[in-house]
């Protein structure tokens, strides 16, 4: 159903900020059948090469505001810190019925409501970078003004880059951001520190980096392919009295292991999300 929704839009999707996350979303939409002439990018700092490549595919890049037709969607993908300057620049493009979707960490529905006319349907969402390969996770919360059709449209846009989880309680968004929005960084860090630990244990650095990377990605693929809980997959690696058990005694230490460390990390990210609310 997503591709049908994207092909039948009433107007363009206007993307404010086509950086890492916004750019990945745009790729997903185009791949899923959004006609390029229905994509508009507004990003004054886009590298020329990226802007030219998008234009060559038929996407409008930084067109004058008066030539932008009534947008079906305004998707806000600038940094939360620049939002107070950037959002008012595109807000006048909104028409009655334009769906506004923000993927800015921390920025609340109340912040968005302050910038758009009363009644504007608003969705606050948080995607993640595996979106670049269609394997993203987005958590989304609607404003009270979002209709069933708006929600289907937001699901289509976010579903173009992975799975979508809707929540009704906006208070969950900062913690969701800390888990799935920031989460890929924790996994990539695992690949980095595992490689470094292998080097410290005597492996050549390049060999250690290769096997650590393949181990993290292979384990993710196994997790994806399997119906088993992560804990069972972990236990399947762990022979009693073996090497893994020795390592897990360190990593699962009640006070100094992964558990309390990750809890502190997610709590720090959640706090930062609240600060970014502005
Ligand atoms: N990178 C990630 O993993 C995730 C990012 N987000 C959110 O997505 C948003 C964008 O993050 P990234 O893509 O990582 O950042 P980024 O820095 O790659 O992209 C931001 C883009 O905004 C553009 N920009 C700056 N000022 C602008 C203005 N006044 N008007 C229009 N465009 C402007 C920049 O040129 C850049 O292309 C942030 O709000 C972030 O919280 C959400 C989930 C995950
Ligand atoms: O680090 C950030 O603030 C953004 C939001 C989630 C991932 N990147």
From TrEMBL:
Pathway(s) per entry: Amino-acid biosynthesis; L-proline biosynthesis; L-proline from L-glutamate 5-semialdehyde: step 1/1
Domain Pyrroline-5-carboxylate reductase catalytic N-terminal: 13-106
TM helices/strands, residue ranges: none
Catalysed reaction, written as an equation: L-proline + NADP(+) = (S)-1-pyrroline-5-carboxylate + NADPH + 2 H(+); L-proline + NAD(+) = (S)-1-pyrroline-5-carboxylate + NADH + 2 H(+)
EC annotation from Swiss-Prot or TrEMBL: 1.5.1.2
Pfam families linked to this entry: F420_oxidored (PF03807), P5CR_dimer (PF14748)
Every Pyrroline-5-carboxylate reductase dimerisation domain range: 170-276
PANTHER family: PYRROLINE-5-CARBOXYLATE REDUCTASE (PTHR11645), PYRROLINE-5-CARBOXYLATE REDUCTASE 3 (PTHR11645:SF0)
The protein's name: Pyrroline-5-carboxylate reductase
Organism for this UniProt entry: Xanthobacter agilis
Gene expressing this chain: proC
